[in-house]
């Protein structure tokens, strides 16, 4: 059974439809990268896991189940318990996620309870200087503040950590260090990770699986290396082609032409159709249902056909032929 199950989730912010029937599964102990262009719905999906959406958001349809609990139908005490014991969150801006009026040590103590060892948890994120314990959040660098936020999120060894671009605001050297820290703490605790990111090469390197979002839906998911190395959805192919790592390996740097949609209601067909080089008439007015291509789940009417000839149009060489 999945630790996290998101099924046909539809979230509206007044007139904007942020999620348009998103499906996502995260298994126990698994690390899943959630990628997609800005506005594709990553943060909305990540926040929905803990029902941490802004007040403007409304769940129009679908459900989120964490460890068997239907998140949107829980009474307040059960929801609090779920957030406190089973879930951890880290966000892009660590200073904003900490309480500006409380010293770091006091905040961590609040999470840990009476018996908790503040020093131990700070040492785990390599903040062993006692001055850090006494500091207020604004006295810390961005990297240090993010490590405090990580220590707090991981202090209860949650089953699932949702990380919404926690390294995006840090400089590149600190970024690597902080990412390493999150993945190794989670591996030690058996914590699953849902890692929201724009950084495809980093996701390919670190995550077991990847889910690609477009227009408020997960349009492709599966083993990270396979999805990004041999995409089955034309959007994934375009995105992977546009990533610098692909360029470094000799592929053409191909940004996706056109703009992503801003939906105001259900997309009548495939939201990617207007930008898709493979779109046929059906794609405009019929919503794609998930199909399985190899180990990948794909929302594309032509996925099976394209799998035969390759999304880029070149013939696919079958492994048994090359072996
Ligand atoms: N609080 C809000 N009020 C109104 N609209 C919102 C709100 N939050 C998000 N949206 C809209 O919902 C859609 C999905 O946004 P979301 O932040 O989930 O995307 P994202 O993939 O996380 O983007 P980014 O990569 O820029 O963080 C966008 O059209 C966005 O403008
Ligand atoms: Ni976001």
UniProtKB/TrEMBL annotation:
Its EC number(s): 7.2.2.11
Entry GO terms, CC: plasma membrane
Catalytic activity as recorded in UniProt: Ni(2+)(out) + ATP + H2O = Ni(2+)(in) + ADP + phosphate + H(+)
GO MF annotation terms: ABC-type nickel transporter activity; ATP binding; ATP hydrolysis activity
Keywords attached to this entry: ATP-binding, Cell membrane, Ion transport, Membrane, Nickel, Nickel transport, Nucleotide-binding, Translocase, Transport
Membrane topology summary: Peripheral membrane protein
Origin superkingdom: Bacteria
Localization terms from the record: Cell membrane
Pfam families, alphabetized: ABC_tran (PF00005), oligo_HPY (PF08352)
Enzyme class: translocase
GO biological process: peptide transport
Domain ABC transporter, first and last residues per copy: 4-240
Family from the record: Belongs to the ABC transporter superfamily.
Subunit structure: The complex is composed of two ATP-binding proteins (NikD and NikE), two transmembrane proteins (NikB and NikC) and a solute-binding protein (NikA).
Protein name, as recorded: Nickel import system ATP-binding protein NikD
Lineage: Bacteria, Bacillati, Actinomycetota, Actinomycetes, Streptosporangiales
